[in-house]
Design goal:
The complex is a heterodimer of chains A (534) and B (327).
Chain A (H helix, E strand, L loop, with lengths): L5 H22 L1 H5 L12 E2 L1 H4 L1 E8 L1 H22 L6 E5 L5 E5 L5 H12 L10 E6 L3 E6 L1 H26 L5 E5 L3 E7 L4 H9 L4 E5 L6 H5 L7 E5 L9 E5 L4 E2 L3 E8 L6 E7 L1 H13 L5 E5 L2 E4 L11 E4 L5 H12 L7 E9 L1 H30 L1 H23 L3 E2 L1 H14 L1 H15 L4 H33 L2 H36 L7
Parallel strand pairs in A: 1-19
Antiparallel strand pairs in A: 2-8, 2-18, 3-4, 4-6, 5-6, 7-8, 9-12, 9-15, 10-11, 13-14, 14-17, 15-16
Helix pairs in contact in A: 1-12, 4-5, 4-6, 11-12, 11-13, 12-16, 13-16, 14-15, 14-16, 15-16
Chain B lengths: L18 H22 L2 E2 L1 H4 L1 E8 L7 H9 L7 E5 L1 E9 L11 H16 L3 E9 L1 H29 L2 H25 L2 E2 L1 H31 L5 H11 L1 H21 L5 H28 L28
Parallel strand pairs in B: 1-6
Antiparallel strand pairs in B: 2-4, 2-5, 3-4
Helix pairs in contact in B: 1-6, 1-10, 5-6, 5-7, 6-7, 6-10, 7-8, 7-10, 8-10, 9-10
The chains are: A alpha+beta (534), B alpha+beta (327).
């Protein structure tokens, strides 16, 4: 007990000083950090969304959406390539039912040529030779293209990668600070944005696919057929909520439209005549020339502006639009126009994302939680400290110093790892106050016991520390097991609780056993007590 | 200086005398808890059943217009809203179950939230939205599953650890004590109908960790005494071990309860349920380490030979006092 070598004292003290130093930047607050010397470490604890306010949103894509979109794209490619082939290959009876694309080659002598055309479309992008689609020819002329599992998986991964980038761009465009955007599992994206004024705007922005298309309106469509949802051959029907004719939908030509993914810029503006909010878009050179061709060939006719499968408006083409920029009108407010502009600027999502979980905490509630958590922590600490001194005297005092150091070290370690303090984390902190003295209670009770059995002071202390350590170790391991499981299975705030708990357990064993032992050893060596008040 | 001693020196309380009554009582309370959960059910939060919850403060009125809210939100066609005071009189929580269409459309929960928030803002310009949670059916099912699994894993993993560090009988004893603590906490939530959410699962996991502290300290002393007093009757030995560790058990439980009491009385409203669960768990955990874990050792016939004697023969029974030399 007496031999506590100097090197041990020095290294323990250095460790404690380091721990306290690391905790200070977090504790002095933003006001104090201005005066913090720059050469010292200045990492601080992050506050979780539940404390500083913010939104946590979980987005999910449906792989079936990716599959059906892929099927659609494949149909378009097949149609285009067959038309382009020399000589042109006639196909018909195209269907996308049951997740496969099937079509007939009209002239059976062209089956081999058709296969040649399809082959490059269906091979995988990878080097492994893995195909994206399987080709099958039934009854001599019917081609059936079945997506392979590997190809589909690839497509989903690619779509999610692109979607993550698009989401990041959109949130950056909103100008929020320090958003966190991470892929989770195969089909999910977690978005965390601290300190938001309007979480609903964020939700609206994230939920919008922003797929923009321009298509010519089909005027030959019979209004009665339209009302029943039947489209003329070569056309398709889209819902049109603001249709001036009063019909709920409108027919547009399948072919000859252009897509709005070839934009270089988009911004909110006002229509010159009506002063209504609109979105101004600028095409890139390829999109611009396509748009010019479309408008040149169709002056006097209307085209539909389609956003995410819904027609916004169907303005007349009064003159060819050659400058590569256009105006999207619709039933906009300034906010919704601005939001669409952001969505268009950051690109369309390759797949529709749905919000499957949302947790938002307002800044006032977060502030309230911090204040109340601090009060509870202070009351708990003062009560436990008093209790320990009253019960164990000098040894209680040592335990209290250890507890105080322990709290600093928890903050310090969390700062080093840039860990996040959540509301349950504050509870973990308060809990640590109650449980960290447990080790000292165990030791001190054991010392009391050994004294009662007649051991001399120094021996009693020695045996007390030795015998208690075993139980302390075992008890804390079980807590660590619970902590690890909490971390593995818990969601965001609960993870924060687990982090505080585990750091608290580790550092409390250090302070409560090693550090108090040092205090006691130094005191015993100096005072040589014959009697022990404990 | 006179120091406080909550537990007098050298207590000799015959705890284990009551073991059969206590065990019957424990089993009864466990059955009662399970029956309560079955009969009343748990008041699951949106974390586990899906749906949405909004916390709102009406900044310019003394009391929140709850009947008015019930009508305006009920009129949105999502069904009946559960509207309750939350903290002060002008603070409410508005809970809503998943709409029926949510099965096919996972985004329905989030859309419902958006609709309610905009209705609130339109009807009451002074409303401040403090918090929003909306969880789709699929996500809530997953949260439910991982929560249940983590509780199960924690109990099993910790029992296995005890088995490795002690003996299998101790592992069984620990497992029973844990089942007791967890079951009773479930019972408390069924009885009070406090909201059962993710935080409560976190509390349960922490209870599993902490309630074992007592159990391990008692077990550790039992092991020590088994080696020391090889001829002592097992019931007397368990009593001795519990009595020897009693002061510590009381002290530690008290410091924990002090800290948790501070959280319940002054802590944030959001984690009130968490604090209550922990407080209760520490309380029943202390009981279960004496009256669940220890008696099971008797029935599983733990004796001096349970541990392979290695360094045990040097102390004879009765030779407890007297100073001795330690090298």
């Amino acid at each position: 007990m007496l031999d506590f070598p100097r090197w041990k004292v020095i290294s323990i003290s250095l460790l404690l000083i380091f721990g306290v130093m690391m905790s200070l930047p977090s504790l002095i607050g933003e006001g104090g950090q201005k005066y913090w010397p720059g050469f010292l470490p200045n990492e601080t604890i992050n506050l979780g969304l539940d404390l500083q306010g913010g939104s946590h949103i979980l987005l999910e894509a449906d792989p079936a959406d990716v599959a059906s979109m892929r099927l659609e794209t494949m149909e378009e490619s097949v149609r285009a390539e067959m038309r382009r082939a020399e000589p042109r290959i006639g196909i018909g009876d195209i269907s996308r039912r049951n997740g496969v694309l099937s079509f007939m080659v009209r002239d059976s002598t062209q089956v081999d040529a058709a296969r040649e055309v399809i082959l490059p479309l269906t091979s995988g992008a990878g080097l492994t030779g893995q195909r994206d689609w399987d080709i099958e020819v039934r009854d001599d002329t019917r081609f059936v293209l079945t997506p392979t599992a590997a190809g589909l998986e690839n497509a989903v991964t690619n779509a999610m990668d692109t979607a993550t980038d698009v989401i990041r761009r959109r949130i950056d465009e909103m100008g929020t600070r320090e958003p966190t955007i991470i892929r989770q599992g195969d089909t999910r994206i977690v978005v965390q944005v601290p300190g938001l004024d309007d979480p609903e705007a964020l939700k609206a922005l994230l939920g919008q696919t922003a797929k923009l298309e321009f298509k010519l309106v089909d005027f030959d469509a019979d209004p009665n057929a339209l009302a029943e949802g039947r489209a003329p051959i070569g056309s398709q029907i889209f819902p049109y909520p603001d249709n001036p004719t009063g019909l709920p939908n409108i027919a547009v030509k399948r072919l000859g439209g252009i897509s709005g993914d070839k934009l270089t810029d988009a911004g909110q503006g006002f229509a010159p005549e009506t002063n209504a909010p609109v979105v101004n878009i600028t095409f890139d050179s390829e999109g611009g020339s396509k748009f010019a061709r479309l408008t040149q060939n169709n002056v006097g006719r209307p085209f539909a502006i389609i956003l995410d499968g819904q027609v916004l408006s169907a303005p007349n083409i009064n003159e060819p639009i050659l400058g590569g920029s256009a105006q999207i009108s619709g039933n906009f407010t300034v906010e919704s126009a601005n939001q669409l502009a952001i969505a268009l600027r950051s690109g369309a999502l390759p797949v529709e994302l749905k919000i499957v979980e949302e947790r938002t905490v307002g800044p006032d509630l977060g502030k309230d939680s911090i204040d109340k958590g601090m009060i509870a922590a202070i009351i708990a600490t003062v009560a436990v400290l008093t209790f320990m001194v009253v019960t164990y005297g000098r040894f209680g005092m040592y335990a209290n110093i250890a507890l105080a150091l322990n709290l600093f070290i928890i903050v310090g370690v969390m700062a080093i790892f840039n860990a996040t303090l959540t509301l349950p984390g504050i509870a973990g902190f308060v809990l640590t106050v109650g449980s960290a003295v447990d080790a000292n209670v165990l030791i001190n009770e054991r010392i009391r016991e050994e004294r009662r059995r007649g051991r001399r002071v120094i021996q009693a202390i020695e045996v007390g520390y030795k015998e208690a350590s075993r139980a302390i170790f075992d008890a804390n391991i079980t807590n660590i097991i619970a902590g690890v499981l909490l971390f593995m299975f818990g969601s965001g705030p609960v993870k924060g609780f687990a982090v505080v708990l585990m750091i608290g357990i580790a550092s409390s064993v250090f302070t409560a056993v090693v550090v108090t032992r040092m205090f006691v050893a130094l005191w015993v060596r100096r005072a040589r007590p014959q009697e022990l008040v404990i | 200086m006179r120091l406080l001693k909550l537990v007098p020196d050298d207590t000799n309380i015959g705890f284990l005398k009551w073991r059969n009554i206590a065990m019957a009582f424990s089993i009864l309370t466990i059955i009662a808890s399970i029956a309560l959960v079955g009969a009343r059910g748990l008041n699951f939060g949106v974390d586990f059943i899906g749906g949405q919850m909004i916390q709102a403060t009406f900044t310019e009125t003394e009391t929140a217009p709850i009947p008015e809210l019930r009508e305006s939100i009920g009129g949105l066609g999502y069904g009946e809203a559960t509207i309750q005071r939350f903290g002060d009189a002008n603070e409410v929580s508005i809970r809503m179950r998943l709409p029926t269409e949510a099965e096919a459309r996972p985004e329905a929960a989030s859309e419902m939230t958006a609709k309610i928030v905009s209705t609130l803002k339109a009807d009451h310009p002074d409303v401040r939205i403090d918090g929003v949670e909306s969880v789709s059916g699929k996500v809530s099912e997953e949260l439910f599953e991982t929560g249940a699994y983590s509780l199960l894993f924690a109990m099993i993993a910790i029992s296995i650890y005890i088995w490795i560090r002690f003996e299998w009988q101790f592992g069984v004893g620990a497992l029973f004590a844990l089942v007791h603590d967890v079951a009773l906490t479930f019972g408390l939530f069924a009885l009070t109908q406090m909201e059962f959410n993710l935080n409560i699962v976190a509390a349960l996991l922490t209870i599993i960790g902490y309630s074992l502290n007592d159990t391990i300290v008692v077990f550790d002393r039992i092991r020590e005494n088994l080696k020391k007093y090889r001829k002592m009757d097992i019931i007397a030995l368990l009593d001795l071990s519990v009595n020897e560790t009693l002061a510590r058990t009381v002290m530690t439980s008290l410091t924990m309860l002090i800290a948790l009491g501070a959280l319940i009385l002054w802590g944030p409203d959001v984690i009130f349920g968490f604090s209550v669960a922990m407080f209760f768990g520490v309380f029943v955990g202390t009981y279960s380490s004496v009256y669940m874990a220890a008696p099971i050792l008797i029935w599983l016939k733990v004796g001096p030979d349970t541990f392979v004697p290695a360094d045990s023969a040097d102390e004879k029974p009765g030779q407890t006092g007297g100073p001795e030399q330690i090298g």
